Amino acid sequence: MKKLLLSTILLLALSLSFTSCRDTKNADSAEEAIENAAEATEGALEETGKAIDEAVDAVDKAAEATEDAIKKAGETVEKKAKE
């Protein structure tokens, strides 16, 4: 009976010593990698937003310039038609 009890305790102690010593480095490095990816993505999204805003401004300016050119061309055509 003693041998059975001692063997059980020994096996329990060995199993606990192996399972309680997990490698937490992998969990920490995975968490850190996720955070780094999130930060990089956030920065890229901000830059993309700025680029889109600049593109919209450029398109607005081009549209205004085109409108002015069309008005001037129309005025020129009207002047030539009156002559």
From TrEMBL:
Keywords: Coiled coil, Signal. Residues 27-83 form a coiled coil. It comes from Flaviramulus multivorans. Residues 1-22 form the signal peptide. This is Uncharacterized protein. It comes from the Bacteria.
